[in-house]
Every structure is written in C-alpha cells, then in structure tokens.
Write a structure and sequence with these properties.
The chain is of the alpha/beta class and 397 residues long. The protein folds into two domains: 3-56 and 303-396, Aspartate Aminotransferase, domain 1; 58-301, Aspartate Aminotransferase, domain 2. The chain has 14 helices and 15 strands. The longest helix is centred in the N-terminal third of the chain and has 20 residues, at 105-124. The relative contact order is 0.16.
Length: 397
C-alpha cells in the first residue's frame, strides 16, 4: 500500500488521540529516518527523547535479537537474568539501592507516588499522603499522574481528579514552603520540565528542595523520564546539582526504544514495598531489560555523555545567535541535548516548515520549539538544522 492509503486507514481505525504530521515513517538508522517513499529526514525529535542512542543502534538491535531467540517473557515469580543485570547497572551508576521495573513513564511515576504514600503512612502516620508538584509539569496520562500534572488543559473532561496533590510554581521555594502542611509526604518534580517548555531550575533550587525535605521529613521524587539516561550530558540530570533524590523515575530511552519504566529507590524507602504491594506483569521482562543493558552500557562506553555535553553547548550557542537576529525569539534554554526556543508566536507553522525541509522538530506549550536530537548527533547535523531554522524564521517573519 502507498502512504496515502495507509494514512487513510489509520484515520479510520486508529483512535484520534494524536494530531499527526502527514509522514509515514518506516525505517530509521542513527539520526535519520525514512518514509515509505524513501524520503530521508533528519530527526531532532528522537521519538520524544526515546532514541537517545539514535535509531536502531546495532548493539541494542543485537541484544533484542539474541534475547528474542532465548526468552521473550516469563513471570516475575521467577528470577530474570537481564533484569538483574540492568538493576545492578542502574544502582552502581546512581544513588539507588533498589530498582522496580514497569513499562512506561506514567507507570513509573504512579509507582513512585504509591511508594511515597506507603512509606509516609508507615513512618509518620495515616494522614501523610499529599504530594506537592509543580505547575507546567508533566507526569503521565493515568488518572493519578494526570492529576499530578499541574496543567489544566490535561485535566479537562476527567474530573473529578484524584485527591492528594498540591500545585506550586516551578522554581519558587517560598511557594513550596507555604504549601507544606501536616498531610504532605513528598515533593515531586522534573529537574528540567520537558513538556512544560524546557524550563530549567535556577541555581540552588534543587538543593534547597532537598534541604526542605530533610528538614520536614518528606521524600524528594525526581521524574527523569525525559531528561534521564544522558539527555542532559550526565547520566542523570540530578548530577548537575549534586542533589540526590529519594526516588527517581525513568522510562523513554532506558531500553533504547523498547518500552520500559523504572523506579530507582534508596534502600530504606524500598523496604516499604513488600511482596504483593505493587507489581507489573510485563515489568522487567527479559526482552526489555536485555535491551536496557545494551543501551546503558553503550551510553557509558561510547563517549555519548561527552558528545552530548559538547554538541549541546555548540547547539545552544547557535540557537542564541539566531535569537539575536529575530525579535520574536524570546529565550533559548535547556541543558545538553534538551533545548527549547521560546517564541512570542505560534510555533507549529515553524515545525511544519522544517518538515518540508526534511527536518523533524517538535513544539510544546504552543510556542516553544523543542530540540531532542540523539546523543550521537554531529556538528554538521546541528549546522544543517540551524541553517534551515534561520531560513524558516526569515520566511515566517
């Protein structure tokens, strides 16, 4: 079938939960993807920060192939070799002592919230259950993570929302202090807000939140679903500030493109999860965790963190140079290879114009262009995107 026929079938049979661009992608390699007609695109979306290693990295592909021939799924009633290997790797390279595996970022965040409530009830009493989250956050699409997501546009139509959440402005320590009361059990936030517009914390903000949690006996939960696994130039975004959370959530790029989610947990807190308290049928299955082992070792062994730092700094400087040329570009922000360019106008026409130039970028919050290239991106590829973006901004101005 041709692309038009397939896209018509999609409109007929696939639920309309996405506004899709008119492209049918069938193949990927590195930073490139191809449509059914063979047209090549430079991908600076990377599956929304899923393909940090690029598309179809050979080591991840081989790990999937090898594991698929041996064992695809077995119940968590039994020990699973690649699950043990991946958990060990994650703990050795983070603050954590234990890992719980699931299938997505929403599931990971849901698990984090369940664990925070259970730990608080065991340690401080039955009335400690509220979690403070940040405005413009994004934590998932389940009813609980949707409620934790402090953006009204995601709440409409799903009321009544779950109780137990308070919202405060991101980067506002005083608002956090005012929100804490006898019911508070945790503070949960993204170290860099991705879906909320690539919003970065001011210096000392995360450190102060850590101090507040220690002072008040609260848990600090970092949602690194989008910014973890090397996206910021370090394996985990919290490393930039030297602030260790109590619980950290991962998903997206953890297995190089295979669905997976994870909770990284300190030992004492992890003990609140007893057998039967929480579970996931497919969580930590052999296929996903084998891919995760390959993805994580590749990031650590192939210089991807160093390349992310170098290319991120270069890309940021080039976007700042563009900002100086166009008055409607308000700000460039981000860290590593999660970068945002805020405009004072609608960003979606820019995305469509870049698509016509065979470059994939993303827009969030309506006016923030978001750039999420693979960690293997080259300077030449960044130059191509910057040149095309400048041309498009000139055309649209």
């Amino acid at each position: 079938m041709d692309s038009q026929t397939l896209m018509m079938l999609s409109e007929r049979y696939v639920a309309h939960t996405y506004s899709r661009y008119p492209v049918l992608l069938v193949r990927g390699r590195g930073t490139r993807v191809w449509d059914l007609e063979g047209e090549e695109y430079l991908d600076f979306v990377s599956g929304l920060a899923v393909c940090n290693l690029g598309h179809c990295h050979p080591k991840v592909v081989k790990a999937i192939q090898d594991q698929a021939e041996k064992l695809i799924h077995v119940s968590n009633f039994y020990y699973i070799e690649p699950q043990i290997q991946l958990a060990s790797l994650l703990c050795r390279h983070s603050f954590a002592d234990k890992v719980f595996f699931c299938n997505s970022g929403a599931e990971a965040n849901e698990g984090a919230m369940k664990l925070a409530r259970k730990y608080a009830k065991e340690k401080t009493g039955p009335d400690r259950y509220e979690i403070i989250t940040m405005k413009q956050s994004f934590h998932g699409r389940t009813l609980a993570t949707l409620t934790a997501t402090a953006q009204e546009k995601f709440h409409k139509g799903y009321e009544p929302l779950m109780p137990g959440f308070k919202y405060v402005p991101f980067n506002n320590v005083l608002a956090v202090r005012h929100a804490i009361d006898s019911k508070t059990c945790a503070i949960m936030l993204e170290p860099i807000q991705g879906e909320g517009g690539v919003n970065c914390p001011s210096e000392g903000y995360l450190k102060t939140l850590r101090e507040i949690c220690d002072e008040k006996g609260l848990l600090l939960i970092f949602d690194e679903v989008q910014v973890g696994m090397g996206r910021t130039g370090k394996l985990f975004a919290y490393e930039h500030d030297g602030v260790k959370p109590d619980i950290l959530t991962l998903a997206k790029s953890l297995a190089g493109g295979v669905p997976i989610g994870a909770l990284l947990i300190g030992k004492e807190i992890a003990e609140s999860f007893k057998p039967g308290d929480h579970a996931s049928t497919f969580g930590g299955n052999p296929l996903a965790t084998a891919a995760g082992v390959a993805a994580l070792t590749t990031i650590l062994e192939e210089g991807m963190l160093e390349n992310c730092q170098k290319m991120g700094d270069y890309f940021f400087s080039q976007l700042e140079a563009i900002q100086k040329k166009f008055s409607f570009v308000k700000e460039v922000r981000g860290k590593g290879l999660i970068l945002g360019m805020e405009l004072n106008r609608d960003g979606y026409p820019i995305v469509h114009a870049m698509l016509r130039k065979k470059i994939l970028i993303n827009c969030t919050m309506g006016n923030v262009l978001r750039f999420l290239p693979a960690l293997i991106v080259t300077q030449e590829e960044i130059d191509r995107v910057v040149k095309a973006l400048e041309e498009v901004l000139k055309e649209t101005s």
